[in-house]
């Protein structure tokens, strides 16, 4: 993984020293909140419902064990002993106190982590496929590209006051695990005629107005990535609307001006910028690539793995759901579920973080990923180590075998924490997971993505959930709208609202109705929920959810 | 006829801790909603909010929150204020744990 050079370390130290002074001046009364707020947001510090919240960037979701241990240390020393992993591969601390923030940031800097540009109208943490460098299906490792974009965008003087926040996602595979079509810019590593390059998408986003990203360049030569990205963001910076917050994201800019106009303006700007990039960026990219060299994979038999599969049904169930194909023979990608039934999606205790760090060190080439689905990944584990790994995970309450199933729910913090939320999300996720665990239907239902947002801003990605749930405030009561048929993969689709919303105490029952309807109508056990929905459309689900309406229509 | 005024309290987050506080009749910031001053007169409520806004060195983001009079002081009329005075529902953290 990337290691800071002297420049990075000095930059971060200076920035933290500045913010320490800014915090001190806010506390001694020299700065008003209006003056301080933009400064704290630039450093990832929010004020939420019950407390401050510090959002720490985990660049492209990649951590080493030392970093994970330090995250645990921060949770213990300055928070309540846990952290919340988010849909943008960040970690949030929900209970820090203002006077402690400078010390927390210094502690994070010791392990090359920071909270810069995790808020504000800037280019945010660059996210990437959490299987990067490990999956069997990728053209190339997206992380060096993500790191290059991170270095370019961090403190970029032109892009500190964009019309609105701006999010990049990068993937190296055709199968999109990074939701690049729901990002302001999505970058996909591709190969054409034996040459590496990028497919660049623009103007995707969820929120109030969900839009699937559009291809602005189908094949961008490798050396043009930074000038072209700069051209897009620069065009948006000039053209994007600043008069209306709800029309300020690039997806609206692209839609209002048309993709062709936006592309022409981008290409014109690119022609100006291209000569300014003299190739230094490509030299830097080469340097960065060296940091991401694949580990020395060992060639060993997988006898222990095969034996454990045979002997232990619990291990086998876990292996069936939580392992993915690795590019190296004998290896597997391990997904550690942070979705134990009834627990808060994405939360890990400091103890669990330490266990994960130890296991990554012992079995996983010291490589840890955070997925946008709020789970933890050990990308490189030899299969012979899996029985021991699984046993250790079980002891830490981290061996839930539910990746990609009903209870592997994305949920935003919702009104339990977030000041913007209009309803709660976490308890809805907890109830759904608990209900289906009790019904023992989870494995029968098979692959399913439920995503829950507690407001229209859609941090919980509900628009691209196979089942999406949106919590709203309807006349002073929590109300949950359901969308069906959404998809965040390479076949990205926005889910369609199925009908009127459901009350807080009805929503779990409604999800159960949808899924029993699916079980009844699927053509075989191999037809997934999403496939069945695409075949039948919303009709059968609407009929099951709103029987009275159906009767009224028939009468 | 003017609409009847919904009673309010002045609430904010404490500058240092970030937790929810309410303004009392004797100008203290309390963590306990039942001690808050229930403002039943619109003009007086606006004045109290101005007072609160002048205390930037103690609190962040004061605003007027709707309340109803209750036996033990002001009671929230909306679930958001009910959560603010309680804490999150997924852990026993926040105000509910401090009482």
TrEMBL record, chain B:
InterPro entries: DUF2849 (IPR021270). It comes from the Bacteria. Residues 69-99 are annotated as: Disordered. Pfam families: DUF2849. This is Uncharacterized protein.
